[in-house]
Amino acid sequence: MTHHSKFNIGWLSTLGLNLGMAAGIGLLCGGLARADDALDGELEIRSAYAVPSHGVVVLSAHVLYPQNDRISAALKDGVTLSFDLEVIVSRHRRLWTDVEAVDLTRRWELSYHVVSDRYLLRDVAGNVQESFPSLAAALTRVGQVEEWPIAVDSQLRNDEEWQIRLRAGVRRGNMPDALRALMFWSDGWHRTSDWYSWTLVR
Question: Is 19 a member of any domain?
Fold first, then answer.
């Protein structure tokens, strides 16, 4: 047992890490390696609807994302989180496969800025960034989707019935190089919600 401990300390030393930093990274890795525990909490689409507006179908939704101390600690140690919202609009055909008119994913990235002590949320597609004083505030914002354009109205014929499905996901994004070298086994840090489905009403 003693020999094993010395081997680990020596290996970490070759990475240029002092013992205090090594201990901290060891604790963080232990927490992040438990993927299910790290993302514990509610992940659910509470409500969603889509309506035509000036020739475009826009979608609004309320999503609850998991929040706990492990997520906050990971962000403060330099890990980013990615939040995906996937929407599929399709038409059912009785004797053939369904027709998909829309398959879109909207993505946000959440990180922590040490100097300002703020949580930064970036809309990847629009490259728009907002900052928040707490993790709770950032998660509330990413969970409120308002009038997201998902289709041109002419794509979805009025004489056909269109089904909309929505699913939310959260996963680990980028991380510091020192953590990446130690955490190659934690790629499963990922959760998705159940599909939320409804029929488009015009």
Answer: no
Neighbouring C-beta atoms of residue 71, cutoff 10 Å:
24
In a domain, 89, yes or no: yes
The total number of structural domains that make up the chain? 1
- CA dist 62 and 144 (Å) reads 5
CB 50 within 8 A of CB 150: yes
Does the pLDDT value for residue 80 go beyond 70?
yes
Instruction: Note whether 12 and 26 are within 8 A (CB).
Output: no
In which domain, by residue range, is 87 found? Answer: 35-199
Residues with Cβ < 8 Å from 198, sequence gap 6 or more? 48, 49, 163, 164
Q: Which residues pair with 176 in a beta bridge?
A: none
Q: Is residue 1 part of a domain?
A: no
Does residue 27 belong to any structural domain of this protein?
Answer: no
Query: How far is it, in rounded angstroms, from Cα 87 to Cα 106?
Result: 9
* Mean pLDDT value of segment 93-98: 67
